[in-house]
Design brief:
The complex is a heterodimer. Chain A is an alpha/beta fold. Chain A has a domain at 33-98: Rossmann fold (3-Layer(aba) Sandwich), CATH 3.40.50. Chain A contains 2 helices and 4 strands; from the N terminus they run ββαβαβ. Chain A has helices at residues 47-60, 79-88, and strands at residues 9-12, 36-41, 64-69, 91-95. In chain A, helix 1 links the parallel strand 2 (36-41) and strand 3 (64-69). By secondary structure, chain B is an alpha+beta fold. Chain B has 2 domains: 3-126, Glutaredoxin, CATH 3.40.30; 157-481, no CATH class. In chain B, strand 11 and strand 12 form a beta hairpin. Chains A and B meet through strand 1 of A and helix 6, strand 10, helix 7, helix 9 and helix 11 of B. Strand 1 (9-12) of chain A pairs antiparallel with strand 10 (145-148) of chain B.
Chain lengths: 98, 484
């Protein structure tokens, strides 16, 4: 039965074998004035304290600030919410707080 | 592996006989084969082991066992009658009447006994069958092949590729994966679940590969598949369980007669080392999360401390010795059905009470210990598993308390005045908002205590396993039936 074996070990790949597509980052804006900035609250306790302050500062800088909120911090943002942010905003800030 | 290996060799017309020298019955029937050749019948002879056997009868050596494998030879000798390349009938071993019927020649082997059983064919030899299945079965496996160089250490190669949980893994060769797949009736290409965090579909094949690496036996595979199904859904939310900074991972509680059939531990050292099924089933599920889902510590796994159970935390309930219905049955599964329950849990901690001989006193101890879970001032946010040791369970059994009574009495003792829980109370900043002062709050939500019976027969101890953010915002325990 030696004919049924080979010397080199061949393993089966246990991973998802995904080829991750690389995407160009969007260029950094020179200024936030006049841009729509989305603030995503992940629904973690006191994250709103941080985001409220960010909104104040960004508004002072002339940005048009919009607020968004995930239903729960433990799960990824629903696809509809991600789509909404992508179509409405030029810039997004996701805040994590604990 | 290649098309020509999976092509079925055509049998020549006439009689085809398959033998091996090692088989005493094959050696005994050599005069019969000579007799058949002398009768003018066309006899093609295949020998599995020694090409010089039977001497002078010009046998064809089935060296790679292709003929034997493809024609399902399970016993030698086998005699087949073939017409137009198609087998018409066969007989195995030596039964004179059968040989005479199949060959159409009478008076065979007059000096031989009428009957003698044959021997196992080499093509079903347990030491060879996995290799043959890979060689001739036509590969049904789609995973990418990764060749390890002769000078490369395969164990180091698997560490280098990031495939392990920090411990060595068994190399997932095609032979081992094919053998693992014998443990399930599901097709290798069946999609079982979508695995977070990368949200990739996982097939039975990929689960089998990771089960091989974890050290599972084929009979564990249905449990691993059920475990992957149980964690990869929005209810259990393995994404959150993985990503959290808290020290939790999937705790897997197994129920049903299958736990005993595969040798799971529900007794002494139930959470500890030493039992292959307990350790490798849990490990395989975590390897699927890592390798297929892409969930790795330091990346999406952000645990502050983690816990050793994140390598594997899986055990069986002691149902035989339990005074109560099982966990699975309490969660709606029919009794004596194989099932597993997944729970987002931290490491176990011990509840000691060596003096209580009445259920009230013992329940007071449990309630006092449970009160401190995660923080004595935390309420409603977390569930818990109470793993009752047999010596504690006996106190309840003798008093006639059933599962419902035990849980009811525990919940009753865990109603806490808001005054003790508000922020700042007892000099502890942590707590509930001030507006809840004057309100009584339960430590656990209804159904938030899961009761399991397990552990060694000696020791007035039990264990509690704290959970993670519960309910729809976090993770809910999930129970799944295990099917082959």
């Amino acid at each position: 039965m030696s004919s049924a074996t080979t010397d080199t070990t061949v393993l089966l790949d246990p991973t998802n074998e995904r080829r991750v597509a690389t995407m160009e980052r969007v260029g950094r804006p020179e200024s936030l004035r006049g841009l729509t900035v989305g603030l995503l609250d992940i629904s973690k306790a006191r994250g709103d304290v941080f985001i409220d302050r960010l909104e104040e500062r960004l508004s002072e800088m002339g940005a048009d600030v919009r607020r968004y909120k995930k239903p729960t911090f433990t799960k990824p943002a629903p696809v509809d919410l991600r789509h909404e942010i992508a179509t409405q905003c030029q810039v997004v800030i996701e805040a994590l707080a604990d | 592996m290649t098309a020509n290996h999976s092509t079925v060799p055509v049998l020549p017309d006439g009689l085809v006989i398959v033998v091996k020298r090692e088989c005493e019955t094959c050696r005994m029937v050599v005069p019969v084969i000579t007799q058949l050749r002398g009768s003018g019948t066309t006899v093609t002879l295949y020998v599995q082991d020694d090409p010089s056997f039977p001497e002078g009868l010009n046998a064809t050596h089935d060296a790679d066992l292709a003929v034997s494998w493809h024609h399902d030879i399970e016993t030698v000798p086998t005699v087949m009658r073939v017409k137009n390349g198609v087998e018409i009938e066969r007989t195995v071993g030596w039964v004179r009447d059968e040989w005479e019927r199949v060959t159409g020649v009478s008076g065979l082997g007059p000096d031989l006994p009428a009957f003698r059983p044959g021997c196992g064919s080499l093509s079903v030899d347990p030491d060879l069958v996995d290799r043959l299945r890979v060689r001739f079965g036509g590969s049904v496996l789609g995973a990418r092949r990764v060749e390890v160089a002769d000078l490369e250490d395969e164990f180091e190669a698997m560490f280098d590729r990031g495939w392990t949980d920090g411990l060595p893994v068994v190399p997932p060769t095609e032979q081992r994966v094919m053998r693992m797949l014998q443990g399930t009736t599901r097709a290798p290409s069946d999609v079982v679940a979508v695995v977070p965090p990368d949200l990739v579909e996982v097939t039975v094949e990929k689960i089998a590969i990771n089960a091989v690496m974890a050290g599972c036996k084929p009979e564990y595979l249905p449990w691993v598949i059920a475990g992957v199904e149980a964690v990869c859904n929005d209810t259990f939310n393995i994404h959150g369980v993985l990503a959290t900074t808290m020290p939790v991972g999937p705790v897997i509680v197994c129920n049903g007669p299958g736990t005993r059939a595969i040798g799971m531990n529900s007794g002494m050292n139930v959470f500890g080392q030493g039992n292959r099924a307990n350790l490798t089933i849990g490990r395989a599920i975590q390897l699927v999360i890592r390798n297929v889902g892409g969930g790795r510590p330091g990346e999406v796994d952000r645990a502050t401390h983690g816990n050793p159970g994140k390598i594997s935390f899986c055990f069986a309930e002691d149902e035989i010795g339990s005074p109560w219905t099982s966990l699975a049955t309490s969660r709606g599964i029919a009794p004596d059905t194989d099932a597993l329950t997944v729970f987002p849990g931290e490491g176990p901690r011990c509840v000691v009470d060596q003096l209580a001989r009445d259920p009230e006193s013992l329940t007071n101890t449990f309630a006092a210990c449970l009160r401190t879970l995660h923080n004595p001032k935390s309420v409603l946010a977390f569930d818990v598993i109470v793993v009752m040791g047999p010596e504690h369970a006996r106190v309840y059994a003798e008093a006639g308390w059933d599962r419902e009574r035990v849980l009811e009495e525990l919940h009753a003792r865990l109603q806490i005045p808001g005054d003790d829980l508000v922020r700042g109370a007892h000099g502890i900043a942590e707590g509930v908002p001030e507006r809840l002062r004057g309100v009584t709050l339960p430590k656990f939500r209804p159904g938030g205590i899961l009761l399991v019976h397990a552990g060694g027969g000696a020791g007035l101890f039990s264990a509690i396993i704290g959970g993670w953010a519960n309910g729809e915002v976090g993770s809910q325990p999930v129970t799944k039936v295990v099917t082959k």
